UniProtKB/TrEMBL annotation:
Top-rank taxon, per record: Archaea
Full protein name: DUF192 domain-containing protein
InterPro entries named among the record's database cross-references: DUF192 (IPR003795), Saro_0823-like_sf (IPR038695)
Pfam families tied to this protein: DUF192
Amino acid sequence: MPHILKYNGMAIAENIEFARTVVSQTLGLMFRRHIPPGYAMVFVLRKPSSVNVHMLFMRFPIDVIFLNNEKKIAGLSRLNPWTGHKAMKNIKYVIETHAGSIERYDLSIGGQMEFEDI
């Protein structure tokens, strides 16, 4: 069964990759040339923590969605290759997806994200 990422009940990504290990979370989307349509990478942290997202070795801009323990949006950011950086506290999930997704899906702080966290 494919994983689907939804925002307030609306599908925004049908191709989800989960980053759960230290290695997969450290690498993230680094070194990739592009990501496929409908793609999102979901970083699953062991517990709500402070996070730092950087854009070193990235070739394209991305939108980053920061979620709390209830999968509600706590922060949103558009980050550019090599120069982007964003830090936040008390975050349980980080979602990296196509640049422009925040505007395209009218994402906002407090909105509810949905996905199977298996």
